[in-house]
């Protein structure tokens, strides 16, 4: 799971000040999945693209300062403008592009809580970092279509099923499944940089993420192409491995806590270190420990 691209993606996500990021060097790379579905890799979350006569439908939109580069990459795929942008969740490295495409007329679709969070200031606390303040978004960047549980769009020959898998990475998560193409965008509920960041301060939980993974795994089959929130394209087996990792960490923390061990003692033993070195494991242990106490 450790590779240069993923660590680079992580680095960008962890760069706490959006304004200090240098987007001039970012290259948008396009990968074709089917005749109508593509993924764009750049800075921040992966962008899913559905192309066709209804215009480009984006799943996540990275950063507003990258919009010209993103539009140049779309022009290589086909003609037309961006008609829809679907947000997988409220985090700025996935939704900042709303500020560019909303004013240009793209219809923004998201979970009701994403709209709520984009209308307010949010504090995102990554382990070992200063809290990141995500400012209130301008009105044109707010989703105009929202849902609580699920919604379907019928665009470019695809049934686009969008559903909330419960609170998982955040309390705003949406999974997007292109039914006919059998392609799924998971947002940050599933990522490929190792132990995931789960936004415990804003409704996310490890238990919820495991539960959401089980829901997604029921839909996916061995042919499903999965666009993760960060990292390269994946198959069902990769999601199984990810779910098993989280479940294993959960089970070990639960066992140790039941045996009377303190949070500090479990973090010292660190059942996450076989997966990845660093602060993220200790943070996930802390989340699980507190979730078990509920
Ligand atoms: Zn995220």
Strand residue content: 15-25%
Distance between the ends: 32 Å
How would you characterize the largest beta sheet?
A: 7 strands, mixed
Strand order of the biggest β-sheet: 1-2-3-4-5-6-9
- Mean pLDDT score, rounded? 94
Instruction: Write the element-wise H/E pattern from the N-terminal end onward.
Output: HEEEEHEHHEHEEEEEEEHEHHH
CATH topology: Metallo-beta-lactamase, Chain A
Report the uncertain regions.
1-9
Q: Based on the structure given, which CATH architecture is correct? A: 4-Layer Sandwich
**Total of helices:** 9
What ligand species are in this complex?
A: zinc ion
Shape annotation: globular
Quaternary class? single chain
**How much is the radius of gyration in Å?**
18 Å
Number of β-strand runs: 14
Structural category is alpha/beta
The CATH superfamily is Ribonuclease Z/Hydroxyacylglutathione hydrolase-like
* The number of domains: 1
Helix content: 25-40%
Any idea of the CATH class?
Alpha Beta
Question: Care to describe what's here?
Answer:
With 294 residues, this protein is of the alpha/beta class. The protein has one domain: Metallo-beta-lactamase, Chain A. It is 32% helix and 21% strand. The chain contains 9 helices and 14 strands. The protein has a 7-stranded mixed sheet. A hairpin with a 2-residue loop joins strand 10 and strand 11. Helix 6 packs antiparallel against helix 7 and helix 7 packs across helix 9. The longest helix is centred in the last third of the chain and has 23 residues. The radius of gyration is 18 Å and the shape is globular. The N terminus is likely disordered. The structure holds zinc ion (ZN). Zinc ion binds next to loops.
